[in-house]
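The aim of this short unit is practical: by the end, you should be able to scan a pair of folded records and say something sensible about each. We start with the first protein, listed as its amino acid sequence and then its structure tokens.
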Amino acid sequence: MSRVLALVGNRPDVCGVAAKKYAHLLQVETHGKALGWGIGFYQAGEALLRRRPLDDREVIEIAALNDISAGLIIAQIRTPGVGALRTENTPPFRYRDWLFAQRGTIGGFDQIRDPLLERLPEFLRCNMRGETDGEAMFYSFLSCLDEAVGLDRDRISALQIRDALRGAVARTDQLLGRSGQGDAAIDWFVSDGEHLIALHRTGTMMYRRFEAPEELEALLPEGPPGASLHPFRCSVIASGLDDPPEKWTRVESERLVTLNRTDPPAIEAL
């Protein structure tokens, strides 16, 4: 079991309210099976993490979502798969200002792990801390981005991020094909603090857009006078939900979804 909820908007105060509004989408009854969860977010331009690799409560809810005021958040709850139950194996993963989460497990990962990691430059490989397929995919993406434009640039465009995601998933599919496996059935969420881009292959991704004044008023029914007069834009995206909530839109499989702090989601073929 795995679910991811992410959001990005231009007002951290209201984004925090939106995160609280949809935190219930990550609420899970464990039925005796322990789950892990993590949250990645940005404050004052810094990527921060809160992670709990093992949570054995009967009903898990990520209460930390209720007290985060951030303009970009990635949260995941999951049944631990590849790797031991420790913090380093718990998504989201972080490298410098980058955050990454993966929904789905790559079948046959043990057969492609070594050749995949061999293609990483040493400065990336030495920063890996866990054993999961998700972290390996993250560093494969960073490697593709480094090969194309370098990771030390001040600004990297959404187009360059999308191209690196395409390169990383193609590299993975190629290695899986050589080992007799099918293409990777995964969803990826990656952010540099300005963009939030999702690569979708599982068939269960959907999003909700907030920008109308009446929608802001609904989020802030008891907000300070005039709060709704300040421009507000926010997009919430999720993977792993069984049914879309009201006013949410499904995303077709084999798509890339690009979100930023102001514009509506941009969707294109993978």
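Turning to the second protein, read its sequence before its tokens, just as you did above.
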Amino acid sequence: MVKVRVWDLPTRLFHWLLALCVIGLLITGNVGGNAMVWHFRLGQAVLTLLLFRLLWGLVGGYWSRWSQLPLRPSRLWTYWRGQGHPDDSVGHNPLGAWSVFAMLAWLLLQVCTGLMSDDDIAFAGPLTTLVSSATVSAATAWHKGWGKLVLLALVALHLLAILVYCLRRRPPLLPAMVHGDKWLDSTAPASVDDGKRRGLALLVLALSVVLVQWLMTLGNV
């Protein structure tokens, strides 16, 4: 068995921070009232994290890069038939890759509609002044209705997939997302996870924060 660093620290922190923020969003969104202040803050945090992950997928560790996600239909089909690729046991397998893609894309859609939503009580998104009232109404209805329901379904499917994976006694998924390493039957490319790469992650995060803060001010122009 060979120990390989698969998930770099920035990717692992992104994963757990995003999970905490999504839980907070679901709680504050259901509570409403004064909790909407935190709902908005958590939405900003999620948008920052998503932007960071988008950029980190270009320059991050080997297995965190978008180029390593097996999203081709042919890879999904062969994996479904039990004829997986050797890399499927290292990074994301095709089903996991599509799950990640769907989750991140849906979260981005939810955040964008939230920025254009208005609850007609105490909260209006910062971009509501840039779109028509009809768009605001549609965004609000989607954000509070189907958007939230589908997000809940995706989260439930994600947790169910992890449970099924564990019940089948395959190599556990969660430990590697804590310490970053996997024990493999053969050697594989390792993700660089040194001080320089973590410093680069801080620069990418700072850029993401600046871009999100700039976006928040567009409605005030």
